[in-house]
Amino acid sequence: MILIALGSNINGPWGSPRQTVEMALHMLNQFPLRLVKSSSLLITEPFGVVNQPQFVNAVALVETKMPAESLIRKLHMIERQAGRRRGKRWGPRTLDLDILDYHGLIKHKRQLVQKALILPHPGIAERRFVLEPIREIAPRWRHPKTRATAHAMIQKL
User: Is there a contact between 144 and 104 (Cβ–Cβ < 8 Å)?
Assistant: First the structure.
């Protein structure tokens, strides 16, 4: 199971945050990706830096034969097409796409590699805006490290 988090809180070339997330979902259903299922769109308060507009968030379940490293490069390309310019951590963005889980793969950051892909996404358990959509579209999903369900993690928040 491959789970992708989507979020947007400022207008970009694809329109409003809602339109941007909807377009990103469309982009996640183009070869070599196949969108299997997507959650409802959620309006959420910002995480980390709170002095910014609310986010539109969703989670998508996708299929692909691409390895995780190729998938993250593809997601970054989609972000750039949506007008994403990396700046302040947790700051406003036209589009943010993160791999939450890639077939249960556990991948740690290597000390010398700054932007190494870490799997599963290290912030899942603290982020209701990804846990609720996961619970909606993949209620039997379990965190690859802790084996906790999204529902159990929400209960702890």
Answer: yes
